[in-house]
Write a structure and sequence with these properties.
about 15% helix, alpha+beta, 14 strands, six-stranded antiparallel barrel, about 240 residues
Length: about 240
């Protein structure tokens, strides 16, 4: 072996000896490289939480499951104000919105409270559909409306407009008002002005006696009842003095 080769071999052995610069470099990299990998991993985990970062995912449609319900809430509560600035509250035991494209919520266990000048009116029903944009509740089935002075309207299949405080029914209706009790085929009531209109086979009872008519209009504030369409009134003896 030549002198040059021997010298090169001695330098290589010295470079790899314990305590040499190479040995110190290898020891440092054993610690630094795993730490660097951990830092890079932490950065990727934190990216989705960064405020100004956008993270995109490409998913195979075949492997993505679709939820049947967009939103499901237990004990939902909706609040707002009507056209006169009076507050209303709509509570539901359960609310389900099928899709965000259609602002309609299926609700059950309905309890609505509307603020009126004379006091609050309450509405109770088993189930309905709440239009979030129009703020209307379409009730399918029985519904009970209670007024601030003990008025009771019992009907079914109604549309309740929370903004205008209008109640319209297409099903059989019965009720009790300060002016008397009644039954009819359909109802149209303005809870704000306390005007009630009944149509179709209207029958009822007043302090004067019993009545029947094709239509009836009642103003609950002035206690005025107007019968129209073949109206008949049977006065109880002694009721008029």
């Amino acid at each position: 072996m030549s002198d040059a080769a021997t010298l090169q071999r001695e330098r290589a052995q010295s470079w790899a000896e314990p305590g040499s610069r190479h040995d110190k470099l290898v020891g440092t990299l054993k610690i630094a490289l795993p730490a660097a990998v951990g830092v890079v991993g932490a950065v990727f985990l934190m990216l989705p939480l960064a405020k100004d970062q956008e993270v995109s995912f490409i998913l195979d449609k075949k492997d993505v499951g679709r939820a049947e319900e967009r939103m499901k809430i237990e004990a939902a509560r909706y609040t707002g104000t009507d056209n006169d600035g009076q507050p209303f509250v709509l509570n539901a035991d359960r609310a389900v919105q099928q899709t965000s494209d259609v602002p309609v919520v299926d609700i059950s266990g309905i309890r609505a409270r509307l603020g009126l000048a004379q006091g609050p009116a309450t509405i109770r029903a088993l189930r309905g559909r709440y239009d979030l944009d129009r703020q209307q509740v379409a009730v399918n089935g029985p519904v009970r409306v209670s007024g601030p002075e003990g008025e009771q309207l019992v009907t079914r299949d109604v549309l309740i407009d929370l903004k205008t405080r209008q109640v319209r029914s297409t099903g059989q209706v019965g009720g009790r008002m300060p002016v008397g009790s009644f039954d009819a085929d359909s109802l149209n009531a303005d809870l704000g002005t306390r005007q009630v209109g009944l149509t179709g086979g209207v029958t009822g009872k007043l302090k004067l006696g019993t009545f029947a008519a094709g239509r009836m209009r009642a103003d609950l504030d002035s206690r005025v009842v107007v019968l129209d369409g073949g109206a008949r009134l049977k006065i109880v003896p002694g009721a008029v003095r």
